[in-house]
Design a protein that fits this description.
DNA Cyclobutane Dipyrimidine Photolyase, subunit A, domain 3; about 40% helix; 22 helices; 3 domains; single chain; Rossmann fold; mainly alpha; Serine Threonine Protein Phosphatase 5, Tetratricopeptide repeat; binds flavin-adenine dinucleotide
Length: about 550
């Protein structure tokens, strides 16, 4: 794994050197940190640090991967690094890979190498904020210039918060008003770099090649199926071009109208993992979408359009950045305090696709095997775990998503779990996704279920969403006996959802009381009145003014 010396630059150029620290932003296009490092430097060190905390196998985890990331995301990251290395080589450089605690490795490199400029993309995640501060403190004492531009997002969340008097906007419309058009949107982004100065002397540092999964200690056959989405900038740009080539589709894109059960050709772009790792620049994506809009007669608008989706991303980044303890219920001012159950058995059934509800279990299998599911599919399983059926804490579900999604993103994941559990942003807890009728609307034959849960592949379509209702003769013919080959439902949806609504009502009333908005008497009334509402998946009640369920 150690790099042969011949591949390193033996004729060391002298003069000013720059270090580009890659973490996300794994791309050449629209990469201001790389561009700045390349400008006026005699040599550039493109560095990626393998953080054992993130990459090392955890033998005790419930599925292959490290403690923090499932094997699919690690695989996707390695592919992205490999692609970055190839693209850097085309420009006369290469990726330097080192292993260790990132701030220690960085500081060691800064001491060892002749670096005048340290360049890395600004990151709002708490993990990186702490890490970056350590590295920046060292650099400033050592007299090294630090350049840390905002290029992961369209806006700098701090600017939006400042415009709003120091507080993050808590709804999408007020976010849009504050944000306006991004300042860079009308000028061309730097998409092509023609060359990068060569790599300088690496001293005693043990430079590695981008490792394989095996070299990191993983046994590939432990994972029964890998995600079909390949990591890297090249694939991101190919996928982007493919999506944009259908201008009508882009112009008419309207979420939530897509089909969550479409898995052969998903209903949305599947660009999220590329945006997560910065293989695709969100700013470039935004500009390309605006170009399409210029050339069509009509197009959809935020919140439902594709630009609107990118702005949801910005919205959650802004609120997350401006909210202390955003990823927790306790100490989080925008989060309702709800007495969620601690039930490890129910949590494990959900996580391991054993709830007995095929629609829910198929989605959870897709999560484990692919690390990506459609937005509405995520809605269904998040609602089921929390306020819909199992009443398990949203933080537990968040943890499972955080580990297994290939697009796992701190701000967006936490923001959506807060939304789906009716802990913040969205408050109509009476509106619950039915685990049996919602999926059926899109996929009456249950093809999605048959694909991800092959044990049910021969179940007649009448029973595929509720196989426990199939007569024993039908189960026998389908070679799937419920309770033996596939589990019985862990809860009855009718009674569990009723109970969840009651608990939510009480919790909401208590939250109001804590704010001093409801009297003791009102609280009693609220607690005893069980207000019914229809499930998602059935016809909406036109008399009731509804808050939008879908973000
Ligand atoms: P498209 O519909 O093609 O949208 C384009 C891009 O817009 C996406 O790639 C994404 O960057 C952004 N976007 C779309 N929807 C949202 C949204 N609701 N909130 C914020 N940004 C959005 N998305 C993540 O990227 N990472 C996560 O960890 C994540 N966790 C989620 C957890 C839950 C419980 C739920 C309900 C949703 C979560 N999402 C997350 C949001 C959303 O489901 C995905 O971004 C989307 O499904 C990705 O598919 P796509 O790229 O085809 O999206």
């Amino acid at each position: 794994m150690k790099l042969p010396l011949s591949l390193l630059n033996s004729t060391m150029p002298s003069g000013s050197g720059s270090l580009v620290w890659f973490r996300k932003g794994l791309r050449i296009h629209d990469n201001p940190a790389l561009e700045y490092a390349s400008r006026g430097s005699n040599y550039v060190y493109p560095l990626f640090v393998i953080d054992p905390h993130y990459m090392e196998p955890d033998p005790n985890a419930f599925s292959p991967g490290s403690t923090r990331a499932g094997i699919n995301r690690i695989h996707f990251l390695l592919e992205s690094l490999h692609d970055l290395d190839l693209n850097l080589k085309k420009l006369g450089s290469r990726l330097l890979v080192l292993k260790g605690e990132p701030s220690q490795v960085l500081i060691h490199c800064l001491k060892e190498w002749d670096v005048k400029k340290l360049c890395f993309e600004y990151d709002t995640d708490p993990y990186y904020q702490a890490l970056d501060n350590r590295v920046k403190n060292y650099a400033s004492t050592a007299g090294i210039e630090v350049f840390s531009p905002v290029s992961h997002t369209l806006f700098n969340p701090a600017d939006i918060i400042e415009k709003n008097g120091g507080r993050p906007p808590l709804n999408y419309q007020s976010f849009l008003k504050l944000a306006g058009e991004p300042p860079w949107a009308s000028s061309p982004l730097s998409v092509d770099l023609s060359s990068i100065p060569p790599v300088g002397d690496v001293g005693s540092c043990e430079i590695l090649q981008v490792p394989t999964l095996k070299e990191l200690g993983y046994v590939e056959k432990d994972q029964d199926e890998f995600t079909p989405f390949r990591g890297g900038e090249s694939e991101a740009l190919r996928r982007l071009r493919e999506s944009l080539s259908d201008k009508e589709w882009v112009a008419n894109f309207e979420k939530p109208k897509g089909d969550p059960s479409a898995y052969v050709k998903p209903a949305t772009t599947v660009l999220s993992p590329y945006l997560k790792f910065g293989c695709l620049s969100s700013r470039y994506f935004y500009q390309c979408l605006k170009d399409v809009y210029k050339n069509v007669k009509r197009h959809t608008s935020p919140p439902v359009s594709l630009v609107g989706q990118l702005l949801w991303r910005e919205f959650f980044y802004t609120v997350a950045f401006g909210t202390p303890n955003f990823d927790k219920m306790k100490g989080n001012k925008i989060c309702k305090q709800i007495p969620w159950n601690v039930d490890d058995k129910l949590l494990a059934a959900w996580r391991e696709a054993r709830t007995g509800y095929p629609w829910i279990d198929a989605i959870m299998v897709q999560l484990r095997k692919w690390g990506w599911m459609h937005h509405l599919a995520r809605h269904c399983v998040a609602c089921f775990l929390t306020r819909g059926d199992l009443f398990v804490h949203w933080e537990k579900g968040r943890d499972v998503f955080e580990r297994l999604l290939i697009d796992s993103d701190w701000a967006i994941n936490n923001g959506n779990w807060l939304w789906l559990s009716c802990s913040s942003f969205f408050y109509q807890y009476n509106r619950i996704y039915s685990p049996t009728s919602f999926g059926r609307k899109y996929d009456p034959n249950g093809n999605y279920i048959r694909h991800f849960l092959p044990v049910l592949k021969d179940m007649p379509k009448e029973y595929i969403y509720e196989p426990w209702t199939a007569p024993l003769s039908v189960q026998t013919k389908a070679k799937c006996i419920i309770g033996r080959d596939y589990p019985k439902p862990v809860v009855s949806h009718d009674s569990a959802s009723k109970e969840c609504r009651r608990k939510m009502r009480e919790a909401y009333a208590l939250n109001q009381k804590l704010k001093g908005l409801v009297s003791e008497e009102d609280l009693k009334k609220l607690g005893s009145k069980l207000d019914e509402d229809e499930d998602e998946g059935q016809e909406p009640n036109p008399r009731r003014k509804r808050q939008k369920l879908i973000n």
